[in-house]
Amino acid sequence: MAGKTFKKFLPLFDRVLVERYAAELVSKGGIMLPEKSQGKVVQATIVATGPGGRSKNGDIQPMMVTVGEKVLLPEYGGTKVILEEKEYYLFRDGDILGKYIE
């Protein structure tokens, strides 16, 4: 459920804690990009998950993602959480758009 570094924080229900990738500061051609022209980072790695949501009849529905997977996030949304002086974001399992298969 939670990564080794997150024993002090565990998302509840169908929540997922992600760490977004760093924004690209240099273009492919080597040009430094100003902050305004950097695109919003929509790729992240799962660092912790909750146990899952409950269905209408009370059964726990398993999460669709696991710790360590690389996922695609919506452009907007998520709740910013600061842990160990780093920024993370909480999303619902159903808000994640997809996961990358390696």
In short:
With 102 residues, the protein is mainly β. The chain has no helices and eight strands.
Notable traits:
single chain, 102 residues, mainly beta, 10 Kd Chaperonin, Protein Cpn10, Chain O, two-stranded antiparallel ribbon
Mean pLDDT: 80
Major β-sheet annotation: 6 strands, antiparallel
Q: How large a portion of the residues is in β-strands, by DSSP E?
A: 25-35%
Tell the overall outline. Answer: elongated
C-alpha-based Rg, rounded: 15 Å
Helices, by number, come to: 0
CATH class: Mainly Beta
Low-confidence stretches at least 5 residues in length (pLDDT < 50)?
none
CATH architecture classification name: Roll
